[in-house]
Design goal:
5 strands; alpha/beta; five-stranded mixed sheet; 4 helices
Length: about 100
């Protein structure tokens, strides 16, 4: 499954009520490191299809979600399980480090 767009309207259904862990990628179109991280997030979505949901949150389009997660720097990756934050990473990271967040 490809990544999907998370908005304040679908956040509860797709993230809070998810029966699978959810990796959230907070990003913006103008952010260079976000563009570098994007193909890694796409690979994780493909590799973990069926076991992990991968959602993308554009901080410019969803300021309420960015504020709720206290996003100060992007890219920021958040892993949630059962509606709770279990891991966070800020900045570009290689795929191995992003995968380690899911463990």
């Amino acid at each position: 499954m490809a990544e999907f767009v998370i908005t304040k309207d679908n956040f509860e259904q797709e993230v809070i009520n998810s029966d699978k862990p959810v990796l959230l990628d907070f990003w913006a179109a103008w952010c260079g490191p976000c563009k570098m991280l994007s193909p890694i997030v796409a690979k994780i979505a493909e590799k973990y299809d069926g076991t992990v949901k991968v959602g993308k949150i554009n901080v410019d389009d969803e300021p309420e979600l960015a504020n709720a997660f206290k996003v100060a720097s992007i890219p920021m990756v958040v892993v949630m399980k059962e509606g709770k934050v279990v891991n966070t990473s800020i900045g570009y990271r290689p795929i191995e480090q992003i995968e380690a967040l899911l463990k």
